[in-house]
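User: Could you check the structure of this?
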Amino acid sequence: SANRVRQTNCLASLSNLRIDKEIILFGEADDAEAIETCKKYNIKYLTDFKRSESGMPFVNDLFERTLTYAEADFYCYINCDIIALGDFSQALNVLYEKKIKNKTDSIFACGQRWDSDSISEIINFEELSDEQILSTAKLTGRMHEPTGIDYFIFQKNTFSNMPDLLIARAVFDNLIVGHAVMNDNIDDYDMSSICTVIHQNHNY
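Assistant: Sure, the predicted structure tokens are below.
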């Protein structure tokens, strides 16, 4: 299915990033395809998280659970329809330099995405270069407005006082950005100019 292609491309692109990492996918216990894909790419698959009555995940709970699984300089939330290229790793290195220079443990970063209708097949990230993938995406692509944010890079203390939000509800991403911007103790960075992420368009 188209949804399987999008999610596989997302997970494969993250697995291909040349950086020390652990990838965690939150999903449903009966999603056999997702479980099999996670095994293929050595991704941890978790189904135990806080949900609303309608079944939607709470953002804070996902963040907090992720923090308990591994110690890391940075944590990142990414929607599963996003493709990350090599400059994502480079962007994390830039943030690490900022972390060391400013001696901070409350960094927040995000950026605009590139919307594309051109990607309809599973990508072999080991065979294709970033330039080839981006060239395909740009055939029908455009930069999304700053109001649509599909990834957040943060540290362990960044969201300690954030209101509890539901994933995929209207403007939840803008509220997360607003929380970071309105808190003086959080260092904010716009990664749009140095980090290319591709959104595989869909109709939902």
